[in-house]
Amino acid sequence: MSFPDMPGCISAGVTIDEAVRNGVEALSGHVRMLEGDGDPVPPPRDFDAIMSDPELAEDRDGAMTTVIPLIRDRGSTTRINVSSDLGLLEAIDATARERGQTRSAFLASAARKDIVD
C-alpha cells in the first residue's frame, strides 16, 4: 500500500481488510514521525484529484484504490459526556467486561473499527 500524498509512507497486509487496518496505523505513525521531526504534514488531496493525476497513472494501473482515514493518536485521553440508550449501555458494559476492557476502551475500539471499515 502506498500513499500518494504522503511520500515514504507504505504498508501491506495479507488481506484487503488487514491492509486497510495496517494502512491506518502506518499513516498515523508516519504523520506522528513527521510532526515529531518538525516537518510539515502534506495536505491530502481529494479522491478525484488523486484518481485524475497523470503522474500516478502507472501506479494506479492494476491497483486497488481506497481512502485511508488519518486517525491521530495524541497520546492523551479526554473526558467526554455521551448519551446512550440504557439497554445499549448495558450491552456495551457486558461486552467490555467479557473482553477485559473498560467502557471507554471498548467504545474507542468500536469507533476506530467503524471509522476504518
Automatic annotation (TrEMBL):
<dbReference type="InterPro" id="IPR031807">
    <property type="entry name" value="HicB-like"/>
</dbReference>
<feature type="domain" description="HicB-like antitoxin of toxin-antitoxin system">
    <location>
        <begin position="2"/>
        <end position="111"/>
    </location>
</feature>
<dbReference type="Pfam" id="PF15919">
    <property type="entry name" value="HicB_lk_antitox"/>
</dbReference>
<dbReference type="InterPro" id="IPR035069">
    <property type="entry name" value="TTHA1013/TTHA0281-like"/>
</dbReference>
<protein>
    <submittedName>
        <fullName>Type II toxin-antitoxin system HicB family antitoxin</fullName>
    </submittedName>
</protein>
